[in-house]
Write a structure and sequence with these properties.
Layout: E1 3-10, E2 14-23, E3 28-33, H1 42-52, E4 56-66, E5 73-75, H2 77-92, H3 102-106, E6 112-114, H4 123-147
Parallel strand pairs: 3-4
Antiparallel strand pairs: 1-2, 2-4, 5-6
């Protein structure tokens, strides 16, 4: 059965939205789209989905936003340097190509990285937030089951 559900939550420092979509399928296929740094939620999210559904293609998406504060970033200068060296080697080998601009190089995955503002956050606070997030996912999955 096809369906869609959404559940939102927050813990004061972050807010999140789970979007769950399903389409017909013979077996159970669960796909997770999680933001960087949330990879630890994938296995529990898949488990929650498997507890509620036996068939269908499910897509679980998490949108995560930081409340307040200003996002910060850093440039991975080592990776950028490696890219520039590769370009220089290609130039020396007389390989013809259009040289990439700096904005293209800055868009290469890993060149610009987000800085975690809460790197000093204790493990207990992180686990509590993840438990709330998974509780909201369970709510979205239950809504999806009702809709189907």
């Amino acid at each position: 059965m096809t369906g869609f559900a959404r559940a939102a939550g927050d813990d004061g420092t972050r807010s999140w939205i789970w979007e769950v979509k399903s389409v017909n399928g013979k077996g159970l296929d669960v796909r997770c789209r999680l933001p960087q740094g949330s990879e630890g939620l994938e296995l529990p999210a898949r488990t929650l989905a498997a507890e509620r559904f036996k068939r269908g293609n499910l897509s679980l998406s998490l949108i995560l936003r930081r409340e307040g504060g200003k996002g910060q970033f850093q440039v991975n200068e080592e990776l950028l340097h490696d890219l520039l060296e590769t370009i220089a080697r290609l130039d020396a080998g007389h390989i013809r190509y259009e040289r990439p601009s700096l904005d293209v190089l800055m868009n290469v995955k890993g060149v610009v990285e987000a800085i975690e503002e809460d790197a000093n956050e204790n493990e207990e606070a992180r686990r509590a937030r993840e438990a709330k997030m998974l509780g909201d996912l369970a709510r979205a999955l239950d809504s999806l089951a009702t809709m189907r």
